[in-house]
Amino acid sequence: MKSLAIPEPELHHRLIEVARKRNREQFKNFEFSTNMKANALIKDISRYPHAYLIALIMNSSMPFMRAYDIPFYLRRRIGGFSFRRLRVLTQKEIVRAMTMPSSLHRYSQAMSKNLYRAIRILEEKYFGDASRIWADRPSSAEIVFRLLEFPGIGQKKATLGANDLARVFKIPMKDKSSIDISLDVHVHR
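The structure assignment produced for this chain is given below.
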């Protein structure tokens, strides 16, 4: 009787292709937020690359979709979201925007400080353009290293950021070897 089994190397290649196709489809329509306007702001990485960076910084101790809403609400509270608008804000003004009329984050004081310091780093090191963090087709390790410079971003968020840049935003990188998935409560087995 003839076996109907697929030869192992062929099966291996078929499984890899199925996984790649699912991966492409999964990230094609990835939503950072259920708020369409907040999602559009985060995804407008060519005009507002700092929106994604700020959301990544805010992604702590709260549901990630709420953290990714924060740039949208900040834009409404400060009257714009250009980097030029952000860079003139004092730390006190950022605290006010983060806390009034209601708190945007569970730890608004600490996040305000992180945001203020991130704006200064963007201004001094990246000339006010967050896209310079991932410009020039760097390695994934370089992107992770650059993200680690920002307050509120540790190893997990830095690799998440590199992962998002590669998969969701399709930012070209020399390699993807430093993109890792942290095993924690957010990974379903």
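Interim note for the steering committee: The mean pLDDT is 88. The domain at 34-167 is CATH 1.10.340.30 (Endonuclease III; domain 1).
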